[in-house]
Amino acid sequence: MSRKKTILLILIIVAVLFFFRKRIEWVIYDLQEYYMISNSLSWNENRKLKWSDFIYSSDKKYADNIYTSVGVSQRYHIDDKIEFRSKTLFLPKKSFVTDTLNSKTLRIAQAKFDLCEVYRRKLENKIEQLRKKVHEVTTDTLKKYGELYNNQFENQWSDFMDLKQREVEKGLLELEMQIKQELKN
Known about the structure:
Elements: H1 3-19, H2 21-38, E1 41-42, E2 55-56, E3 66-67, E4 70-78, E5 82-90, E6 96-97, H3 103-130, H4 139-161, H5 168-184
Parallel strand pairs: 2-6
Antiparallel strand pairs: 1-5, 3-6, 4-5
Helix pairs in contact: 3-4, 3-5
C-alpha cells in the first residue's frame, strides 16, 4: 500500500475513533456490566441465598464461618437528564463458606445482601432528588454519592460484625427487622 493510502487510512481510523468515542466507551461499559452481572446474582425480594451459592472451603477462616461478597453495579450518564441504573449483586465466585450446618450463618449472609440493597435504594432515592436540579449535577457528584452510601453500608455492616458472640442473635434479629422495614418503604 502506498504511503498516501496508509496515512489516509490512519486519519480515517483516528477520525472514526474521535467522533464515535462516546459510543465506543458505552459499548465497553456495556460489556463490563454484562460480564459482572452474568457472574453474579442480582438482588430480588424473592431470591434467598443458598449454600450452593457459595464456594465451600473447610480450610478458610472467616468470622461466622462465611464470607459474603456483595456490591452495587451502577451506570450513570448526565446530559439533559440524569440517566442512572443500578443493581445489588452477590458475587458467588468471591463468597466462601466453611460450615453449612449453621443456619444463622446463612441468615447473616442474607442480611448483608439485603442491607446492601437498602443502601442501593437510598442512593437511588438521592439520585431521584438530584434529577430536579440536573444542571447543578456532575458525574463527580454521582460518584461521590455512590461512595457515600457504600461507606454507610460498610460502616453499618462493620458495626454488626463487631458484636460480641453473645450479642449476635439479638443484633441479627434487630438488623433483619430494620432491613424488612426499610425494604417495605
